[in-house]
Structure formats: structure tokens, C-alpha cells
């Protein structure tokens, strides 16, 4: 699997996928910068009137419900419909699902508009969408992860999307296969937007095509491994320094880093 992950990461740098992000205002700049460092091209296009012209030229669409406005709702629904017609991959980050019913209802509307390629959320959000009892406080998961793998599998089976639940162990499933990724660092919880950035990277890897489970694993491993490298480069745990070094580590990530330090188990 590590060899396949390396191939995906190299494909992103070779193809420079154009990722359209309809994302939250708290972390929009971080998502744009992490995509650039990763080798992709970000486009924060969220105006409804621009969807019909722009969606046809993108490689992938990323939707994040963190600060969901009415205009973002309308733009996202139209974008998903167009993406479905053109067979463009769509990655959804269902921020605050399980905490706010409006967000959960919106996800159901998106599912009715077209097929989602990847649903990436924290453990609490994914369990809530799967119909399990997920513990969510605002945009943060306070769920300890029990039953998360089964929730991922069931939600993937139900939606026909690859489902990613991030946590101390990241879980990825396509309804049949399950992969567990152990890369990461607690420092990722001390900055705003680590989850949003992971979702944006998942759109970049989805945008180069191929097996969506492998593509998702590549994105999630990349940010976890870059986080480890960034944290390991500091003498003290300083969140601001870590944030800057996370971008540098994504930019500098090599195949050798993945092959030597990637931690993944496929069931």
C-alpha cells in the first residue's frame, strides 16, 4: 500500500489538480496554502452564478460545512449536480454534523443531488452520519472512537463513498476494505483547521483519479506524517511555529519519508 500512496502523491505534483473549495471562512487561507504546498492548485470559488462555468474545468470539488452560509448551500448543491453529470470527484467535510441538525440535513440534500466520492470527518461526525451515537462539541469530536471502523464501513456502504474518520487512529473504508493509519501528532489538535486541510488534500488526491480508498489514504497519511516531521523539528511545542512548519513539511515530503515512516494497516 505504501508504494501506491507514493504513486498518488507523485501524481499530484505531476498533474497539479485544480481543486475547487467551497469551504469555511475560518480556515480558507490554510486550505489554499496547504494545497499549494502539496502540489495542487486551489480555487476558492463559491458564488452560485460561477458554478456552471467553473465546475467543468476542475479536477475535484471540496465542500466544507464549517461556516455554511445560504449562498454556499446553493452553490454547493448546484456544483454537486454539475460534478455528477461530468463525473468529477466530490469530497465532503461534514463539519458539525451531529452537533447541528441543519448541517446533517444539508448533507442528506447533497447525497440526493449526486454521488459523493469521499466523506471525511472526525470520528463523532462520521458516527453521527452513520446513525450511531457520535459525541461532537461544536466542530470538535469528543468521541473516543469505539465502533468507528464499523460506522465508516456502514456509511461507505450506504453512500457508495469512501469514508474517512480522523482521530488518534485514522480510519478509511469503502464499505468492503478498511485501512487504519497511525501517523500524526497531538500538535495537530492545537491549530485551527487541521481537519479542513486534510479534507482539501483528500480532494487533491481524488483529483488525480484511481482508487479512491488509496487516494484518501495518501492524503490522510501525508498530513499526519508532515505533522510528525514538523513536531519533531521543534525543541519546544509551539503551535504557531508548528503551523508554519506543517506547510514546509508538506511541501518537502518525499517518497522516502512515506516508505520509511508511513504507518498503515489494511484489513
Topology, pairings included?
Layout lengths: L1 H14 L2 E5 L5 H11 L2 E3 L7 H4 L5 E5 L5 H17 L3 E4 L7 H13 L4 E5 H7 L6 E2 L2 E2 L6 H12 L2 E5 L3 E4 L4 E4 L12 H13 L5 H21 L6 H14 L2 H7 L2 E3 L1
Helix pairs in contact: 1-9, 2-8, 2-10, 4-5, 6-7, 8-9, 9-10
Beta strands, count? 11
* Sequence of secondary-structure elements: HEHEHEHEHEHEEHEEEHHHHE
> What structural class is derived from the secondary structure elements?
alpha/beta
Write the CATH architecture name.
Answer: 3-Layer(aba) Sandwich
Overall tally of domains: 1
Distance between the termini: 12 Å
Q: What is the overall number of helices?
A: 11
Return residue spans where pLDDT drops below 50 for at least 5 consecutive residues. 134-143
**What's the Cα radius of gyration?**
17 Å
Mean pLDDT: 94
From the spread of the alpha carbons, the general shape counts as globular
Beta-strand percentage range: 15-25%
Strand order, main sheet: write it out. 2-1-3-4-5-8-9-10-11
What is the name of the CATH class? Answer: Alpha Beta
The proportion of residues forming helix, as a percent range, comes to 40-55%
Which topology does CATH recognise?
UDP-N-acetylmuramoyl-L-alanine:D-glutamate ligase
CATH superfamily: Ribokinase
Q: How can the largest sheet be summarized?
A: 9 strands, mixed
Overall description:
This protein is an alpha/beta fold and 267 residues long. It has a single domain, classed as Ribokinase (UDP-N-acetylmuramoyl-L-alanine:D-glutamate ligase, 3-Layer(aba) Sandwich). The chain has helices at 2-15, 28-38, 51-54, 70-86, 101-113, 123-129, 148-159, 194-206, 212-232, 239-252, 255-261; strands at 18-22, 41-43, 60-64, 90-93, 118-122, 136-137, 140-141, 162-166, 170-173, 178-181, 264-266. The strands form 2 sheets. A 9-stranded mixed sheet has the order 2-1-3-4-5-8-9-10-11, sandwiched between helices. A two-stranded antiparallel ribbon has the order 6-7. Helix 2 runs parallel beside helix 10 (239-252), helix 6 (123-129) crosses helix 7 and helix 8 crosses helix 9. The termini are close together. The relative contact order is 0.16.
